Amino acid sequence: MSKAIVIHQTGDPTVMQWENFDPGEPCPGEVRLRQEAVGLNFIDIYHRTGLYPLPALPAVPGLEGAGVVESVGTGVSEFKPGDRVAYAGVPPGAYAQERCIPAHRLVKLPDGINTRQAAGMMLRGMTARYLLVGCYPVKAGSRILVHAAAGGVGTLLCQWGRHLGAEVIGTVGSVEKAELAKQNGCQHPILYAETDFVAAVKEITDGQGVDVVYDGVGQATFMQSLDCLRPMGTMVSFGQSSGAIAPLDVGLLSAKGSLFLTRPSLMAYTAKRDDLLAHARDLFDVVTAGAVKIAIGQTYPLEAAAQAHQDLESRKTTGSTVLIP
């Protein structure tokens, strides 16, 4: 029998148990998938801790993976056994050797992208796409600030932003991560532990501020990020790895320059099938063209998911992390 990581209660990484798991046969509209790689993301931690509740417990967490179609349910015509596919987003259930998933959430992989690459890029890559295109239309000459510029989403934002012609500023936690961010297109890495990043951004932009801030850190950076924006700039809060953001008096947005604030999600931006395919197509295009390179910083056996969570929470990882079933 195949196995999966199962959560019976929320809590620290020890609540994840490696158990026998039978996904069953695909229901109408579903595909049964043999997974070759699973992506690790901060939202998995939020699900494990209960910050973002899973639909029900016990549950198999995980929102990203790639593998090979084993069988299809009735009504599925877009996929067939043997197809290489990938996905990112709901429903959860990725931390498994085999799983069933609605066919409309899958995309076929082009020949030039392997399943480990796909598992390390689908959620982050499509996130980067909606951040750079949907939340704010980054173009040549745009100035952007990327927090955690050496992280999984950050490295992709830096590369893709530079590809679009933006001036990329990023915050990082160490000299090593600053070098990594530079290698991925960040022209101005800022060591936030040693430097006031607001002052640094103002110096880099000659006092003008940036057009958009991409903040997946949350509590530790949110308020200062607002001060990095030009008038009528856009604050994109898409995560909270440092903790939840305190309630905000929206009048502050007016006082700081008629700012725009959005809290987007990949699920909303890819809810429609056409939008999902557009996000995946654009991601595959920049990766196959070499404009965006997918760095798998580390891999773990799927059964060692608890250690992977600990390392991600401790900021010991760089780039993407992939779990191997």
UniProtKB/TrEMBL annotation:
Keyword flag NAD: no
Single GO molecular function: quinone reductase (NADPH) activity
Domain (Enoyl reductase (ER)): residue spans on this chain: 11-323
Gene Ontology annotations for the cellular component aspect, listed alphabetically: cytosol
CDD domains found in the cross-reference section: QOR2
Keywords: NADP, Oxidoreductase
Protein name as annotated: Quinone oxidoreductase
Gene of this entry: qor
